[in-house]
C-alpha cells in the first residue's frame, strides 16, 4: 500500500502517545516504531529526523494519503495546537511544568467510542500488559479482520451486535474475570438503545458534561473513572479528568489534596486546568508512572 509522510510534526512522541494508558492496541517495535490497529486499519508509525534534527516527520506505513486525511490525522489529533496548551497549563504551575517536560509529546487519541467503552471496562483493576492480552484475545476470537502488517493479521473489536449474542462463558478464554458479564450486558444495552449510532447521537445531544457522564454510567460496569476515560478518549471531551490510583497519588503528593477526596481533585482540575483537564491528566499520569516509588 505504501507510506504516507506527514512533514514537520510538532509536540509529538510515539512513546508518550502510545504508552500513557489511553490505548491498548499498539506495540513498540525494536526500531522504536509502533504497530497497531484502529478504525479498521493496521499500520506502523515511526518518526524520521530530517535536516540534522531540525525537523521530525511522521511516517505511516501501510497507509494512503486518503487514509491519513480521513483517519489518522484526526485519530492523532494533529490539528490541535499542543504547544499553546502546554504553555497555558504550565504558566503558573511548576508541578505541571515538570510533568509536561517528561511527557511533552503526548496527544489525546480520538478513538472509536465502542472500542473505548470495551477497553476501559476491561481496564478496571487491571494492569496494562494484561489489558492488552485480554483485548487481543477478544478480537482474535470474535472480531472481524482489520488487515495485515508485517506478516501478522489484526482484528477489530467485536461489534455490539456480536457481543450481545455472547455469554460470559463464551468469553472465558479471554480471561476477563468479573468483567466478562459487564461486556455482554453493555453490548445488550447498546442494542436496546438502537445501536452505536443512536448512542453516539444521544451523547452528542447531551446538554452538559455531567449529562454525558451520567449517560455513560448507565452502562454495566461503567463507574465514574471509566466514564471519564470514555468521555475523554472516545468522545473528545477534553475537560474530562479521569482519576485512578496514579492520579490520586500525584494529586495528593504534589498538589496536597487528600488521596480519598476525588471531589476536591475534580474541583481543582476544573478550576486550574479547565477545558484541558484531560490533557493535564495525561501529563500527570505519565509523569507519576515514570517516577514510580521515587515520589
Sum this structure up briefly:
With 295 residues, this protein is an alpha+beta fold. It has helices spanning 14-18, 65-75, 82-90, 94-102, 113-122, 128-142, 160-164, 179-192, 196-204, 209-216, 224-235, 245-255, 262-272, 277-291; strands spanning 3-6, 26-28, 34-38, 41-50, 55-61, 145-149, 152-155.
Question: How many angstroms separate the termini?
Answer: 47 Å
- In the CATH classification, which architecture of the domain at 113-206 applies? Orthogonal Bundle
User: Would you identify the regions where 5 or more consecutive residues have pLDDT less than 50?
Assistant: none
What would CATH call the homologous superfamily of the domain at 113-206?
A: Hypothetical protein, domain 2
State the helical fraction. Answer: 40-55%
Continuous helix count: 14
Strand % is: 5-15%
Largest sheet: 5 strands, antiparallel
Mean pLDDT: 95
Side by side, the strands of the main sheet go: 1-5-4-3-2
SSE series: EHEEEEHHHHHEEHHHHHHHH
What best-fitting shape do the alpha-carbon axes yield? Answer: globular
Q: Class of the domain at 113-206 in CATH?
A: Mainly Alpha
Stated plainly, the CATH topology of the domain at 113-206 is called Endonuclease III, domain 1
Could you tell me the number of beta strands?
A: 7
Gyration radius, in Å? 19 Å
In terms of structural class, how would the helical and strand content be classed?
alpha+beta
Amino acid at each position: 500500500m505504501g507510506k504516507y509522510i506527514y512533514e514537520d510534526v510538532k509536540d509529538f512522541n510515539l512513546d508518550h502517545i502510545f504508552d500513557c494508558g489511553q490505548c491498548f492496541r499498539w506495540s513498540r517495535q525494536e526500531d522504536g516504531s509502533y504497530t497497531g490497529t484502529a478504525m479498521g486499519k493496521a499500520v506502523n508509525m515511526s518518526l524520521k529526523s530530517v535536516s540534522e534534527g531540525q525537523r521530525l516527520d511522521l511516517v505511516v506505513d501501510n497507509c494512503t494519503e486518503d487514509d491519513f486525511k480521513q483517519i489518522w490525522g484526526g485519530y492523532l489529533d494533529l490539528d490541535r495546537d499542543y504547544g499553546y496548551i502546554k504553555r497555558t497549563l504550565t504558566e503558573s504551575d511548576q508541578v505541571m511544568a515538570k510533568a509536561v517536560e517528561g511527557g511533552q509529546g503526548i496527544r489525546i487519541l480520538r478513538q472509536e467510542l465502542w472500542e473505548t467503552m470495551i477497553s476501559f471496562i476491561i481496564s478496571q483493576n487491571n494492569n496494562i500488559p494484561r489489558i492488552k492480552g485480554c483485548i487481543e484475545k477478544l478480537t482474535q476470537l470474535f472480531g472481524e479482520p482489520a488487515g495485515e502488517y508485517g506478516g501478522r493479521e489484526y482484528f477489530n473489536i467485536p461489534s455490539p451486535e456480536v457481543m450481545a449474542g455472547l455469554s460470559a462463558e463464551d468469553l472465558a478464554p479471554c480471561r476477563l474475570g468479573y468483567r466478562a458479564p459487564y461486556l455482554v450486558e453493555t453490548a445488550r444495552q447498546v442494542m436496546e438503545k438502537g445501536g452505536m449510532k443512536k448512542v453516539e447521537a444521544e451523547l452528542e445531544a447531551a446538554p452538559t458534561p455531567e449529562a454525558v457522564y451520567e449517560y455513560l454510567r448507565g452502562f454495566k460496569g461503567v463507574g465514574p473513572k471509566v466514564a471519564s476515560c470514555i468521555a475523554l478518549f472516545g468522545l473528545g471531551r477534553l475537560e474530562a479528568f479521569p482519576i485512578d490510583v496514579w492520579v490520586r497519588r500525584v494529586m495528593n503528593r504534589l498538589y496536597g489534596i487528600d488521596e480519598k477526596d476525588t471531589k476536591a481533585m475534580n474541583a481543582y482540575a476544573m478550576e486550574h486546568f479547565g477545558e484541558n483537564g484531560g490533557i493535564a491528566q495525561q501529563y500527570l499520569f505519565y509523569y507519576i508512572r515514570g517516577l514510580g516509588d521515587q515520589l
